[in-house]
Amino acid sequence: MTPPLATERVLSTLNQDGSRHWIHPRLAQGRFLRGRKIVGYALIAMFLALPFVHIGGRPALLLDVLTQELSVFGAVFKASDGVLLMLLGLTIVVAVFLVTALFGRVWCGWGCPQTVYLEHVFRPIERWLEGSPSQRRKLDASSRPHGRRVLKWVIYAALSFVLSNVFLAYFVGVDRLALWVLHSPLQHPGGFMVVAGVAALMLFDFGYFREQTCIVACPYGRLQSVLLDRQSLIIGYDQRRGEPRAKPKKHLPVIGERGDCIDCSACVAVCPTGIDIREGLQMECIGCAQCIDACDAVMDRVGKPRNLIGYTSQDELAGKPRRLLRARTIIYPVLLAAIAGLFVWSLGGRVTSNVLVERSQGPSFVELPDGTISAQARIRIANDTDGDRSYVVDLSRAPDAKLRTPQLTWQLHPGKSLSIPLFVDVPRASFVLGKRTIHLRIQDDLGFARVLVVTLLGPEGSAR
Known about the structure:
Blueprint: H1 31-49, E1 54-55, E2 58-59, E3 61-64, E4 69-72, E5 75-78, H2 82-103, H3 106-111, H4 113-130, H5 133-141, H6 147-172, H7 174-182, H8 189-209, H9 212-217, H10 220-227, E6 234-237, H11 239-242, H12 266-270, H13 290-302, E7 309-312, H14 314-317, H15 327-348, E8 353-358, E9 365-367, E10 373-383, E11 389-396, E12 402-404, E13 409-412, E14 417-426, E15 435-444, E16 449-457
Antiparallel strand pairs: 1-2, 3-4, 4-5, 6-7, 8-10, 9-10, 10-14, 11-13, 11-15, 12-14, 15-16
């Protein structure tokens, strides 16, 4: 039984019978396309080069999944830096809210890797090998493989492999990735499978799934209803100027003036997500401005002013003035400044070592032959720097006490921690209700110093 056809298209990538509607957009040359190319290729160059750039002996950007460390332009964040990572994440989120409130989906059309690589790398290769949109549709309808299409997929596979390796360098580092790539897969089967899996996902995304990533998978378009307001910058069609639309040299069916839109559908033919911008603000619009370039070229040919389709706001389309200052553009910057300031302050005050008191193991104290109490204490030191550190532990403000340690100095490698057992000899009379407080001073060889307050348990005391 044949399923009934939908009365209208649900998605721009689906036909009414539920089959895939392949989108082959034309390319509209213009000022916005030139600007997007400059931005896009600059971002690609930065993406390819950044894993090889080192700042302070570390990669400029590395999320090391094996060591659980994040390196960002010389700053290193560890899994234990929960507050700093939370503040960094909040800073990014609020910045996205602010940019969206001001400039709409400028990220999607100009900076998103999905758009940058699809529109500036993969689709240009497709146009070069397969020709115009009509020629590509003929290849779609053909049941036999064509040499140009096979060559396209070979190039796509090679590009996906290269990009997947660069992408993984941001998570495992260039040196570790080189071992995976240059050596036999049998020596690093796990790494090889990761590289192959990421390359396959990229090939699927840029070769097959394409604009459906923006329309179906990415949540940003669905969030724009709450991230945008009527003053946010969008790409819109001026209905007051364009309607009623009609083909040139044709009479309208009703009496009235002809609008500037000549109903050429050039804006639809160039849209990478297959929508008609004249139907108003839509979730599928990624703000790439191809419809603006296409419409401006048509307006130039028919002698009409540009910006029938242009960057505007919903209020401007309704005839209202655009205001820069409004609730969102005041609250978001204040929040961003507060969170970013707190992040910078926390980052600047972060210590190079973490020191804490641990629970003692075994008896809390023993009584020496001369009546002195030897109480046990235990501390843990963590070296959170990139170099070796030498730590010294001694007593502070305790003239009647003596510290005994297994060794004088403690060496710690980068990112390592160590539990240190200590014994403090103090007079029996110094305990009050079974407790005595001492101050331990921990110092390293590069200026770090911290004093810990430790409670010793003695006679009449109980385990803590």
